[in-house]
Amino acid sequence: MIRTQLSLSDEWSTEESLYEFLCNKYEIHPTIDLAANHDNTKCFHFFDKSDDALSREWNTCSCDVPPKEDLNDDRWLNGPHSKTKSFVLKAHEQWLKHNINILMLVPLQTIGRIYFNKIFDDYIKPNKGVEWHRVQPRPTFIHPDQEKQENAKQEYIVIIWRKRKQ
């Protein structure tokens, strides 16, 4: 199957109803979106491409605008699919380092075929406090260059790194 430029884009955003459903179901209410832009962020505070979430710490927000609310320890991530492995590993590292809740939406086909066993067996399974669940039905995403929403062509999971009790 030949993929279009649009389907290869990392600019797809999560549908608001799916984001709210996942937050409520898993009782994580993020104050920072770790991979977003002004038009698609799910949180008041967010890291965009220029913030480069892969090279910074996720426990703070160096925002120009003072927080409207106190920043909690909950983070949201629907990272660029072209960097799924890097974001999963970074999320795990930041969870271990800063003891924060992270709710991450991940394409199952990609992580399952290429990374799933290695990441989960080597990094995640040995650590209690990490869980994953299938997202059903398949999510719908929105692209800024397209008027209609697109149903995902692959399945997704949500990975949850839960704050450890001290």
Taken from the alpha-carbon principal axes, the silhouette is globular
Structural class: alpha/beta
How many strands, which pairing sense, and closed or not: the largest β-sheet? 6 strands, mixed
- Spatial ordering of strands, largest sheet: 3-2-4-5-9-6
Q: What features would you describe in this structure?
A:
- With 166 residues, the chain is of the alpha/beta class.
- Helix content is 28%, strand content 20%.
- It is built from 4 helices and 9 strands.
- It has helices spanning 5-8, 16-26, 84-98, 108-124, and strands spanning 13-14, 32-33, 45-46, 74-77, 101-107, 130-135, 140-142, 150-151, 156-161.
- The chain has a 6-stranded mixed sheet with strand order 3-2-4-5-9-6, with helices on both faces.
- Residues 1-9 have low confidence and may be disordered.
Layout of strands and helices, then pairs:
Layout: H1 5-8, E1 13-14, H2 16-26, E2 32-33, E3 45-46, E4 74-77, H3 84-98, E5 101-107, H4 108-124, E6 130-135, E7 140-142, E8 150-151, E9 156-161
Parallel strand pairs: 2-3, 2-4, 4-5
Antiparallel strand pairs: 1-7, 5-9, 6-9, 7-8
